[in-house]
């Protein structure tokens, strides 16, 4: 399995609900944040293209939860490329809690996005930009190793 892009996050009280655990929807929000930080770190030319009308539109996302999280838990969210077609990208996410005893898998998710170009009031699918393809390939999930 190739390496994953890693986004490190410390849970805050802002992420929790009245019971004190992390509100489930935050996991989906963190997928988006991880994806955005990936773009900033690995494909800054794509960030500039947003001003020219490029959009990366989420078409599907999900998350499977294994354990609860609480304020001040430290997370590593690992993102890998699952599939890449002409205009769509499928990503997988693993949420790992870091502790003294090592790491614990907390949740697993996925997200599919489409590359679109704004044309007035409408959007049209466009091919995944080459800079983004190149950046994603280094984090491609290798099914031979699984």
Structure report:
This protein has about 150 residues and is of the alpha+beta class. The protein has a single domain (about 5-140), classed as Thiol Ester Dehydrase, Chain A (Roll). About 20% of the residues lie in helices and about 45% in strands. It has helices at about 25-40, 45-50, 130-135, and strands at about 5-10, 55-65, 75-85, 90-100, 100-120, 120-125. Strands 1, 2, 3, 4, 5 and 6 form a six-stranded antiparallel beta sheet that branches. A hairpin with a 3-residue loop joins strand 3 and strand 4 (about 90-100).
In short:
The chain is an alpha+beta fold and 146 residues long. The chain is built from three helices and six strands; from the N terminus they run βααβββββα. Strands 1, 2, 3, 4, 5 and 6 form a six-stranded antiparallel β-sheet that branches.
What is the H level of CATH, i.e. the homologous superfamily? Hotdog Thioesterase
CATH architectural type: Roll
Number of helices: 3
Provide mean pLDDT, rounded: 93
What is the N-to-C order of secondary-structure elements (H for helix, E for strand)?
A: EHHEEEEEH
Gap from first CA to last CA: 7 Å
CATH C-level class: Alpha Beta
How many domains? The number is 1
How many beta-strand elements? 6
Structural class: alpha+beta
Q: Bin the helical content.
A: 10-25%
Approximately how much beta-strand content do the residues carry? 35-45%
- The outline comes out as globular
Sheet with the most strands, sense and barrel status: 6 strands, antiparallel
Which spans have pLDDT < 50 for at least 5 consecutive residues? none
Rg estimate, integer Å: 16 Å
Report the CATH topology name. Answer: Thiol Ester Dehydrase, Chain A
Keywords: Hydrolase
Protein name: 4-hydroxybenzoyl-CoA thioesterase
Family: Belongs to the 4-hydroxybenzoyl-CoA thioesterase family.
InterPro entries: 4-hydroxybenzoyl-CoA_TE, HotDog_dom_sf, YbgC/YbaW
